Amino acid sequence: MCSGRAPRRPRPPPVSGLDRLDELVGRARATGLDVTTRTEGTARQLPPALDLAAYRIVQESLTNVTRHARASEVLITLTWTDEALGLSVEDDGEGSPVGGARGSGLRGMAERARAFGGELTAGDTGRGFRVSARLPLTGGPTAMSRTPTALAPTRLTTTRPTTGGTE
Question: What are the residue ranges of helices labelled H in the chain?
Answer without folding.
Answer: 21-30, 48-64, 104-115, 140-145
